[in-house]
Write a structure and sequence with these properties.
Layout lengths: L1 H5 L3 E9 L3 H11 L3 E3 L13 H23 L19 H50 L23 H5 L4 E9 L3 H12 L3 E7 L4 E2 L6 E2 L1 E9 L1 H13 L3 E3 L5 H57 L3 E2 L5 E9 L3 H15 L6 E5 L16 H10 L10 H16 L2 H16 L4 H4 L4 H8 L1 H18 L17 H5 L5 H6 L31 H34 L4 H31 L11 H10 L12 H32 L5 E3 L2 E3 L5 H13 L6 H4 L10 H25 L2 H25 L4 H42 L22 H4 L4
Antiparallel strand pairs: 1-10, 1-11, 2-10, 3-7, 3-8, 4-7, 5-6, 9-10, 12-13
Helix pairs in contact: 2-8, 2-9, 3-4, 3-8, 4-8, 6-7, 10-11, 11-15, 11-25, 11-26, 12-15, 18-19, 18-24, 18-25, 19-21, 19-24, 21-24, 25-26
Length: about 850
């Protein structure tokens, strides 16, 4: 809990690693994920570092593994379970893994190329078969004197001759030729027009579409093809036709000169196609065997190569000592994990067989350490909410433990509905119970991943919504009469206030709580269900929720101001308690805390008998600032004097907040005889700079290294700048004083969104469910089924998803702006430990794993 509240205490340490055991030591640290390494070679480029060749080998292996994974995925072969977590292989085993991958790549590439070649040959033979079959119909139609599908008639007398007769062409002194092939269906129209324009009609084009889909050799997608036959005369025309066919990527095949040759070619094609099918089937079986064998080890190789590459990357961050026999690394490490770090180094030295052990040494530093806050699967979601605003400074109070309660509670105040909260809680509970399901965790849907990662937040929001739904007595816009209403209509007739004629003559009647027996006492839990039937229900709930929002907001902000004391005490800045915290708290409580007091006082003191005499709180609050109100009825005796006193205290807090801290720090640095304070300790003139440095290092290790000087960008050795400190404090004072007004008004969103949610729920019930429930015939039962389905869909999509997202965003704003800015700066740096489990994988990003 201490780690979650303030973060781990960090230290800067040096690791002395023997050259022979450095690889194994880094591997052990990567498995633990304890430390963050610093780059000790910032001036050395990436390509000039020692282990750049090893990293290139790892990248080459990653390329081969990516190729293998793509082929495995293309073959629809499932990878084995990912429960294995192999250790990083030794450096001497890198070449053997490299050779295995290269050999597998060559074998797989050769088999794949043979398969592609066989498939391309099979496609060509299939297209050739379709071409011969379809062009035979062109010849038969020509013999039967049927017109072609498309022909250009430059010589009308040629209609009397068949396509295959050479006599007429020979009489013209030209050589008749044929070009046949296949073209994509989408290109045939443009192809036809191009032939006409270029060849001036000296061609005859016939074409017909192939019935079945043929695979495109370039894209692998099935597509429709068209068989064409072009008759031309003249070699020059033939050259033009071939160039046009090349431009349109036509697949050309030789055209037989006689029927006997055509039959021989068709018979040969049939035999070759059967042989290709047999060979292709065997090739696919062998390729599947190779891929099955590769899939058994590919995940292990991916993990090993990722770990190897990460280790060599870390080794490049280290520097050599003067003897070139020892590697030196600097790491940020939690103080509590120093013994674990030492044991990991000893284990790495033992595995490598090194006789000289590696060890760790803490070193002092003035650099601000990174922030480490340990979380589990429950607290990680709430910590992410805080980190989205900003990572906390080192050892600063973390808002996450308090956000676990306040965030779902403020959400539930805006979303309060028993039925909607139960649906949300059950959905989140289902995700929690099946949180180890791989199908739920390993999806590429970002929206689902967002919901799944925040399943515990949704569960808490649902549970708190059930609670506030009970307080509001609201379940799908209907009230639950669990304990029986505290109001009685019978007493109005018993006491003779109402008569039968009053009921018949009036649509609305008012229950008088002053009549004996009408109001027997408050409802045990929440709002009385009779208010759901009252005509002034909205007026009553508006007043109640608005005042409740103001009270919750003032409590929330005051709690944030109080939390700042933990920072002041921890960082040895006790003067901030008197010069910052106390003026802030007095300003907030004397004005807005007094407003909450008046609300509660009016609730407790005024009853139904004298409720008409109760004064307006808003008017009294305005008159408090105007120093007026002598002619008005006071809320309590001595109200005017107390209000003047509170306003004076609040006004006097502003100059103290503005000038107190800068003046005190100026006196601290420029006081008589140079007497000052250094991080909470009395400091006098030192005889040596070494003694002062050691004291500073000791304070830094204790976590007290965040004085006002360091937070304002200065160092203890630098000269104090009063103007800079005054400017910062002036900005803070203006922001805080104005923020108290705006932030208090901002909490009215709790009232507004709660009202909007309740009204939307009531409108949805009245316009959907009530329509189905009013039908009392047999058909009404059947009609109720689609009505209920529509009601369920609208409830989930509008009231749960849209309204839930709206309430979530508003609760997020209340925490970031109104709560956290009272004590949380969020300008720190998060610790990024070297951990194999946290390393990103390009294969997972590409969907290969």
């Amino acid at each position: 809990m201490c780690s979650l509240l303030r973060g781990e205490e960090m230290c800067l340490a040096q690791l002395f690693l023997q050259s022979g055991s450095a690889y194994d030591c880094i591997s052990e640290l990567g498995e633990l994920g304890l430390v963050e390494f610093r780059d000790l070679n910032p001036s050395v480029t990436t390509f000039q570092r020692k282990h750049v060749n090893e990293i290139k080998k790892c990248e080459e292996m990653e390329r081969i593994l990516g190729y293998l994974l793509r082929e495995v995925k293309k073959a629809d072969i499932s990878l084995p379970e990912r429960d294995v977590n192999p250790v990083a292989p030794l450096p001497k085993h890198i070449m053997s893994i490299m050779e295995q991958l290269q050999r597998l790549e060559v074998e797989l590439g050769e088999v794949t190329r043979n398969k592609d070649k066989l498939q391309r040959n099979l496609l060509e033979l299939t297209e050739y078969t379709h071409m011969l079959r379809i062009t035979r119909t062109f010849v038969q139609r020509s013999v039967e004197r049927e017109p072609l599908q498309a022909q250009y008639e430059e010589f009308p007398f040629l209609e009397k001759d068949t396509m295959l007769e050479y006599s007429s062409m020979q009489r013209l002194g030209a050589k008749l030729g044929f070009i046949s092939g296949l073209i994509q269906r989408t290109k045939i129209q443009a192809f036809e027009r191009m032939l006409w324009r270029v060849c001036k009609g000296y061609t005859i084009l016939s074409y017909a579409e192939v019935e079945e889909y043929l695979e495109d050799p370039d894209t692998g997608e099935p597509s429709k093809r068209v068989v064409f036959l072009i008759s031309y005369w003249g070699d020059q025309i033939g050259q033009k036709v071939k160039k046009i066919c090349d431009c349109y990527h036509c697949h050309l095949y030789p055209y037989p000169s006689s029927n006997e040759e055509r039959n021989d070619v068709v018979e040969g094609l049939r035999t070759r196609i059967q042989d290709l099918h047999t060979v292709l089937h065997r090739t696919e079986d062998y390729l599947k065997q190779v891929l099955m064998k590769a899939s058994e080890s590919v995940y292990t190789w991916v993990i090993q190569v990722k770990k190897m590459k990460a280790i060599y990357y870390i080794l490049n961050l280290c520097s050599l000592d003067v003897t070139n026999k020892c590697l030196i690394a600097e790491v940020w490490c939690p103080v509590d994990d120093i013994p674990t770090l030492q044991r990991a180094l000893e284990e790495g030295s033992r595995k490598s067989g090194s006789t000289v052990p590696s060890f760790v040494n803490r070193i002092p530093t003035n650099d601000a350490p990174p922030t480490l806050i340990r979380t589990n699967k429950f607290t990680s979601g709430f910590q992410n909410i805080v980190d989205a605003y900003g990572v906390g400074n080192y050892r600063e109070v973390n808002p996450a433990p308090f956000t676990i309660i306040t965030f779902p509670f403020l959400f539930a105040v805006m979303f309060g509905d028993l039925g909607h909260g139960a649906i949300m809680a059950l959905f989140a509970l289902w995700m929690v119970l099946y949180e180890n399901n791989r199908k739920l965790k390993n999806t590429r849907n970002e929206i689902w991943n967002t919901f799944f990662e925040g399943r515990y937040i949704i569960l808490m929001m649902g549970l708190f919504s059930i609670y506030t739904g009970l307080i509001y007595n609201d379940c799908f816009s209907k009230s639950l009469n669990i304990f029986g209403s505290g109001w009685s209509v019978k007493a109005m007739f018993t006491e003779g206030v109402w008569k039968i004629a009053d009921i018949r003559g009036n649509r609305f009647l008012t229950l008088d709580p002053n009549v004996t027996g009408v109001f027997t006492g408050p409802y045990p839990l929440g709002i009385d269900p009779i208010w759901n039937l009252a005509s002034n229900r909205l007026t009553f709930l508006n007043s109640y929720k608005m005042k409740m929002s103001v009270i919750l907001g003032i409590i929330h902000m005051s709690f944030g101001v109080i939390l700042s004391t933990y920072n002041h005490l921890h960082f040895k800045k006790k003067y901030n308690l008197y010069l910052v915290f106390l003026p802030e708290l007095l300003f907030l409580l004397c004005l807005f805390g007094y407003l909450a007091f008046m609300i509660i006082y009016k609730w407790l003191v005024f009853t139904a008998k004298d409720s008409r005499l109760a004064p307006s709180i808003l008017i009294h609050f305005i008159n408090m600032f105007l120093m007026q109100g002598d002619g008005m009825q006071p809320l309590y005796p001595g109200q005017t004097g107390l209000q003047v006193f509170l306003v004076v205290i609040a006004v006097l807090s502003v100059p103290v907040l503005l000038l107190g801290k800068p003046v005190y720090l100026y006196w601290l640095h420029n006081g008589s005889n140079r007497i000052g304070m250094y991080r909470g300790y009395e400091r006098v003139r030192r005889n040596s700079e070494e003694e002062l440095y050691l004291m500073r290092a000791h304070d830094m290790e204790e976590g007290s290294g965040h004085s006002d000087l360091s937070t304002s960008g200065e160092r203890p050795t630098e000269e104090f700048d009063f103007g800079d400190e005054f400017l910062h404090q002036a900005i803070h004072t203006i922001e805080y004083c104005l923020g108290c007004v705006s932030n208090t008004a901002s909490y009215l969103r709790l009232w507004a969104l709660s009202l909007a949610h309740a009204q939307l729920s009531e409108v949805l019930w009245a316009m959907v469910m009530r329509v189905g429930l009013r039908m009392d015939t047999t058909l009404g039962v059947l009609f109720l089924v689609p009505v209920f389905c529509l009601f369920a869909v609208l409830t989930v999509s509008i009231l749960l998803v849209m309204e839930g997202l709206s309430a979530f965003l508003h609760a997020l704003r209340l925490h970031w702006v109104e709560f956290q800015n009272k004590f949380y700066s969020g300008t720190g740096v998060k610790l990024c430990p070297f951990s194999f489990s946290l390393l990103p994988s390009s294969f997972e990003h590409d969907g290969l794993l």
